[in-house]
Design a protein that fits this description.
Helix content: 25-40%
Strand content: 15-25%
Largest sheet: 6 strands, mixed
Number of helices: 6
Order of helices and strands: EHEHEEHEHEHH
Length: 238
Amino acid sequence: MNDTAYDFTGLRALFINCTLKKSPEPSNTQGLVDASREIMEKHGVHVDVVRAIDHDIATGVWPDMREHGWQTDDWPEIFDLVKAAHILVLAGPIWLGDNSSVMKQVHERLYGGSHLLNEQGQYLYYGRVGGCLITGNEDGIKHCAHNVLYTLQHIGYTIPPQADAGWIGEAGPGPSYLDPGSGGPENDFTNRNTAFMTWNLMHLAKLLTDAGGVPAYGNQRSEWDAGCRFDYENPEYR
């Protein structure tokens, strides 16, 4: 395929790596992030990557926890990248069959901004797309993915088809994704799903961006608060 056939210049993507490992320790999750990132950058997408654990992110559900008793909070700077991104991919490992504690913290902080509105009076995350990448050496990719994708759609992100990908090794102690001999980077199932997810994210982000986002009628919080009921039939409002 000609590399100019699909040009997504102007789109921005943000990957948040929710590994438990601080830099510079190698992150297996980062290996899968890099595979998706490479496709995006090849087609003009500006990509930012944040390793959440490298930052002092306060616990809570408000945009800036310094306003709620915390001395430090790096989330507001990360949130600026979230707000700039058309595509958000949350990536993380499986621990005890579930998402990492860092992933849960990122969910909570994203939720803390979900009450904010965009220029059309919709919730802030409308018109953006989301996906996820999961790694580990125990079962749970689909469980972790449905938790991430539910969270993203609930707060306003649009989820494309095949919006998740992952890799797991043999159950129990064993090699992780980037370990020599793991077979992770060569796994066709993982590579196919990662490629499909990446392209679907780019396609849908461009469609939404070109269309000016999700049509506003029927979902504007600002209008609902002003008394508009968008044809909702309820005797209380007649």
